[in-house]
Amino acid sequence: MEFDEETEPGHPWQEVEHVEIDKAEPSADLEPKMPLDRLDEHDALDNPILIYLKEIGRVQLLTAEDEKVLARKVEDGRRISDITQEWLQEYGALPSATEIVLTMLKEVGQASAIIHVLQALLGLTHTTNFVESISNPKLLDCIDSETASN
Length: 150
Hints:
Radius of gyration: 31 Å
Largest sheet: none
Oligomer: single chain
Distance between the termini: 57 Å
Order of helices and strands: HHHHHHH
Shape: flat
């Protein structure tokens, strides 16, 4: 490797105006030589990619409903964590399970006005039973479809 003697001290790199890069032709054929289902155990054990593909085929994937259930659990956990942090800041101690539940019930009660408005907008029958109101399938479907689109 030769260095240009005209390079100024303090500038270890010369400015490059143009660089040509030769692209090497792919030397390996990336297509499998034989279908994966025809490979015997010995061949599969020698190839880490085949081992991986074989192992992921054994794992059951989540359904859309499973994803919704897990997302709800994550959101519930985050809300409980938020309540715990708020309680700790306000009272200087961790809340009991009862205090967490009471806080959540208070928040749900405050949301009842919104639920009544949603019932009216969706043309749902107004009920005095709060549990019936929030467990109406049409209301839940509207909420789920709205949250899924966001």
